[in-house]
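Q: What would this chain look like folded?
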Amino acid sequence: MSTYIPLLIGAIFFAYPFLWMFFASLKPETQISELWLLSKNLSLKNYSIVFAKIPILRAFFNSLLVSTTITLSVIVFGSIVGYALSRLNFKGRDFILLLILFTMMIPFQITLIPTYVLIVKLGLVDSYAGLIFPGMMNSLAILIFRGFFTTIPQSLIESARIDGCNNLQILFKIIMPLSKPAVATVGILTFTSSWNEVLWPLIVIRSEKLMTMPQLVTIFVVGGQAGSQLGVQLASATLLALPIIVAYVFLQRYFIESLARTGLKE
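A: My prediction, written as structure tokens:
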């Protein structure tokens, strides 16, 4: 019992800011500063103001489309590269792995301008493709898949080869069904990072119809459309955070399992 008390206290401290943000978005402006969560005057007024002032549903669809496409692309391409680096023997494999590790040390801001110039030359500014293409490959995803795939017995792969399976069939029919924790981990991390991305959409998207949810909420709050109404700003922030919270709640078991298994791997 004594073990759970510190965990419970830690969980309360961790969850309180999110709970406060949600309940504050339901309170009148004069009661937002109160630390107590509940109030007799809870309402959805602030949310109705958000929906009335900005096309939040359209932005939600844009973010969902972009984030889902990027996540699926990263899972497919990352698993292919991770399989090659973990199970195939070819010249330059170690060099490619070192190169991938090196790219992880380069800040995104350094490659921002070259990437933007490339997108402009390809004519992809102000399009879904301009948002999606730069994020379709992820170094961290490759390393996660590579680490997880090395835990799968080689005997399974050899049996599949004997049965006539090629490398792609082995990957998608044998290994991937056994790698749900790794897929969930890559999915959560990729979806979260792409969903929360603000800087890149601000650079390549100008049409309000194509704006992602973080971009639109940022412009809404910083640009002055929300005015000085803190409750409206908190309502927009709550709507922005909700999909990430829901995704993590459903996939947290796989996420923790993957971290545990890859963390114990030498």
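The mean pLDDT is 86.
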